[in-house]
Amino acid sequence: MRIGVVGLGMGLYLASWSRRLGIDVVAGCDRDAQRRTDAAAALPGADLHEDWTALLDLDLDGVVLANDFDEHAPLAIAFLDRGVHVLSEAAACADEDQAKALLAAERRSTATYSFAENYVFHPHVELLRAAVDNREIGRVTLIEADYLHGMSPEDVAGLIGDPAHWRGRIAPTAYCTHTLSPILALTGEQPTEVSAFLVDTTDARTAAVLVVRLSGGGLAIARHGFLQGEPDSHWSWVSVRGSEGIAESLRAPGERAWSVRVRKEAWTAPDGVVRDEERAPKAVTLPDGTPVEPKAVGTVRILEGFRATVEHGAAPLVPVGPAVAASLVGVAGARSLREGSRPVRMPEL
């Protein structure tokens, strides 16, 4: 399997893991000369370019898109039209028109689109998925997810204060895929309506809250951005309340942040005893026995899934539909903010 990588920041991390997993990274591109220099040292033998269009004419089975957050859809469409399988990181689309174009491109292509949403396969989310799928907590009624960073005002300004950088130009609601993708994966439902709120109206870009009605009737609350007090772990917290109990990841530092708590209410058990336990994920290793650190487990799953899709025709782990849905929640949220946080219906695509 021969792949190219567009964007050699996060893309270089994905490319390095790809090679460790036996995927042949033969090409890459980045507008930044220093990144290309760094990639040349990390990916010996790869054909490196400044312009992504150079990769269109190469003999590639797949491409990993890790370019700017809000610029993925046009590239994905171009590669799909060339019959190249796409693994796209960050947002699938920046607006409804891009969503429609991407869906149409995937339908007409001989190749597939996969969303590189590693948070769907992080260890704590996998433990929650097992509890939900086994109906341990009954029907899901309320699900919450955070993607938050505790950082100094100076560091936050350095990330989102430059309007020329993608973090400085996207809406405060846009970077919601790390919360919405786990929500959609755990519930198997679609977002139908979105209301968005700024956490601090005096510092509007810092953090946002999205309140999302789901197609099954339940409610989702997603928080993302920069708020203080988060544990030094992986920035993700997910809580699933059901009709018979709760399953939620731990707000804890270090390795315990990958564990979850599952509580089954006493009235649901024949013996009338509460079941309340902490569960830790199992260790993950590569085929050669090398341990995979927890924060890389989701990335390994995504890359292995992409290879299975390209080489064996397996279904994408996160296909284009949920990718577009998660991304458009941020678009609907931006409209909600502009219109006084009123509820905005999701487009029916």
TrEMBL record:
Signal peptide: none annotated. Residues 127-247 form the GFO/IDH/MocA-like oxidoreductase domain. InterPro entries: Gfo/Idh/MocA-like_OxRdtase_N, Gfo/Idh/MocA_oxidrdct_glycsds, GFO_IDH_MocA-like_dom, NAD(P)-bd_dom_sf. Pfam families: GFO_IDH_MocA, GFO_IDH_MocA_C3. Keywords: Oxidoreductase. Gene3D superfamilies: Dihydrodipicolinate Reductase, domain 2, NAD(P)-binding Rossmann-like Domain. Residues 1-114 form the Gfo/Idh/MocA-like oxidoreductase N-terminal domain. GO terms for molecular function: nucleotide binding; oxidoreductase activity. PANTHER family: BCDNA.GH03377. This is Putative dehydrogenase. It comes from Nocardia neocaledoniensis.
